[in-house]
Amino acid sequence: MADLSRIKALELAIGLPFPKSYRQFLEEHKWVSHRPEWIVRANPDRWGVHGLFELDGGASYAQSDEAYRLVFDVIPNAFCPIGEDASGNLYLIDCRTEAGPIFWWDHERSAFSDGLESVSETFSKFLEDIAPE
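Structure for Knr4/Smi1-like domain-containing protein, as requested:
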Protein backbone atom coordinates (compact mmCIF):
# COMPACT_ATOMS: atom_id res chain seq x y z
CA MET A 1 0.00 0.00 0.00
CA ALA A 2 1.21 3.50 -0.85
CA ASP A 3 2.58 5.90 1.70
CA LEU A 4 -0.18 8.55 1.85
CA SER A 5 2.21 11.17 3.24
CA ARG A 6 4.39 10.73 0.13
CA ILE A 7 1.36 11.17 -2.13
CA LYS A 8 0.51 14.43 -0.35
CA ALA A 9 4.15 15.60 -0.47
CA LEU A 10 4.34 14.94 -4.22
CA GLU A 11 1.06 16.78 -4.80
CA LEU A 12 2.50 19.74 -2.87
CA ALA A 13 5.66 19.66 -4.97
CA ILE A 14 3.61 19.64 -8.18
CA GLY A 15 1.33 22.36 -6.83
CA LEU A 16 -1.92 20.55 -7.60
CA PRO A 17 -3.74 17.45 -6.39
CA PHE A 18 -3.62 14.35 -8.54
CA PRO A 19 -6.71 13.48 -10.56
CA LYS A 20 -8.85 11.13 -8.43
CA SER A 21 -8.34 8.14 -10.73
CA TYR A 22 -4.56 8.45 -10.51
CA ARG A 23 -4.53 9.04 -6.76
CA GLN A 24 -6.64 5.91 -6.26
CA PHE A 25 -4.29 3.97 -8.54
CA LEU A 26 -1.26 5.14 -6.52
CA GLU A 27 -2.89 4.12 -3.25
CA GLU A 28 -3.20 0.52 -4.50
CA HIS A 29 -0.38 0.07 -7.03
CA LYS A 30 2.96 -1.75 -6.73
CA TRP A 31 5.68 -1.45 -9.38
CA VAL A 32 5.58 -4.18 -11.99
CA SER A 33 8.30 -4.39 -14.61
CA HIS A 34 6.87 -5.53 -17.92
CA ARG A 35 9.28 -7.83 -19.67
CA PRO A 36 8.83 -7.98 -22.52
CA GLU A 37 7.67 -4.40 -22.62
CA TRP A 38 3.93 -3.79 -22.85
CA ILE A 39 2.47 -1.55 -25.54
CA VAL A 40 -0.01 1.29 -25.76
CA ARG A 41 -2.49 -0.13 -28.25
CA ALA A 42 -3.30 3.33 -29.67
CA ASN A 43 0.22 3.44 -31.12
CA PRO A 44 2.04 0.12 -30.56
CA ASP A 45 4.89 0.97 -32.95
CA ARG A 46 5.72 4.10 -30.99
CA TRP A 47 4.92 3.60 -27.31
CA GLY A 48 5.99 0.81 -25.01
CA VAL A 49 5.46 0.62 -21.26
CA HIS A 50 8.28 -0.80 -19.15
CA GLY A 51 6.54 -0.03 -15.86
CA LEU A 52 4.23 2.28 -13.93
CA PHE A 53 5.67 3.98 -10.86
CA GLU A 54 4.52 3.50 -7.27
CA LEU A 55 4.86 5.46 -4.03
CA ASP A 56 5.82 2.76 -1.59
CA GLY A 57 8.93 1.27 -0.04
CA GLY A 58 10.26 -0.32 -3.22
CA ALA A 59 13.35 0.43 -5.26
CA SER A 60 14.07 4.10 -5.98
CA TYR A 61 13.83 3.61 -9.78
CA ALA A 62 10.18 2.55 -9.33
CA GLN A 63 9.10 5.59 -7.31
CA SER A 64 7.09 8.43 -8.79
CA ASP A 65 8.50 11.01 -6.38
CA GLU A 66 12.08 10.00 -7.21
CA ALA A 67 11.35 10.29 -10.94
CA TYR A 68 9.81 13.72 -10.33
CA ARG A 69 12.86 14.82 -8.32
CA LEU A 70 15.11 13.92 -11.25
CA VAL A 71 13.10 15.73 -13.97
CA PHE A 72 10.92 18.41 -12.33
CA ASP A 73 13.07 21.18 -13.77
CA VAL A 74 12.73 19.99 -17.39
CA ILE A 75 9.13 18.76 -17.60
CA PRO A 76 6.15 21.13 -17.86
CA ASN A 77 4.71 22.56 -14.64
CA ALA A 78 1.85 20.54 -13.09
CA PHE A 79 3.00 17.34 -14.82
CA CYS A 80 4.18 14.25 -12.94
CA PRO A 81 5.96 11.09 -14.11
CA ILE A 82 3.74 8.00 -13.83
CA GLY A 83 5.80 5.44 -15.73
CA GLU A 84 8.51 4.83 -18.28
CA ASP A 85 9.37 2.99 -21.43
CA ALA A 86 12.44 0.78 -21.83
CA SER A 87 14.50 3.71 -23.17
CA GLY A 88 13.96 5.94 -20.15
CA ASN A 89 11.33 8.16 -21.73
CA LEU A 90 8.53 9.00 -19.33
CA TYR A 91 4.78 8.91 -19.26
CA LEU A 92 3.49 12.09 -17.60
CA ILE A 93 0.10 12.93 -16.16
CA ASP A 94 -1.18 16.48 -16.52
CA CYS A 95 -2.62 17.41 -13.12
CA ARG A 96 -4.25 20.64 -14.32
CA THR A 97 -7.52 18.83 -15.06
CA GLU A 98 -9.47 16.10 -13.29
CA ALA A 99 -9.31 13.96 -16.46
CA GLY A 100 -5.54 13.59 -16.08
CA PRO A 101 -4.48 13.37 -19.72
CA ILE A 102 -1.35 11.29 -20.32
CA PHE A 103 1.64 12.34 -22.41
CA TRP A 104 4.78 10.56 -23.54
CA TRP A 105 7.89 12.65 -22.90
CA ASP A 106 11.04 12.16 -24.95
CA HIS A 107 14.06 12.70 -22.69
CA GLU A 108 16.20 13.31 -25.78
CA ARG A 109 14.01 16.13 -27.08
CA SER A 110 15.53 18.94 -29.12
CA ALA A 111 16.00 22.47 -27.84
CA PHE A 112 13.02 23.48 -30.01
CA SER A 113 10.56 20.91 -28.65
CA ASP A 114 9.00 20.13 -25.29
CA GLY A 115 9.22 16.43 -26.24
CA LEU A 116 5.54 15.79 -25.44
CA GLU A 117 3.16 13.60 -27.41
CA SER A 118 -0.44 13.06 -26.37
CA VAL A 119 -1.12 9.42 -25.49
CA SER A 120 -4.54 9.36 -23.83
CA GLU A 121 -7.28 11.81 -22.87
CA THR A 122 -7.55 10.34 -19.36
CA PHE A 123 -5.53 8.22 -16.99
CA SER A 124 -8.32 5.61 -16.91
CA LYS A 125 -8.28 5.27 -20.71
CA PHE A 126 -4.50 4.95 -20.61
CA LEU A 127 -4.77 2.01 -18.21
CA GLU A 128 -7.36 0.38 -20.48
CA ASP A 129 -5.11 0.87 -23.51
CA ILE A 130 -1.92 -0.79 -22.23
CA ALA A 131 -1.51 -4.50 -22.74
CA PRO A 132 1.06 -7.20 -23.47
CA GLU A 133 2.36 -7.09 -27.02
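The domain at 4-131 is CATH 3.40.1580.10 (SMI1/KNR4-like).
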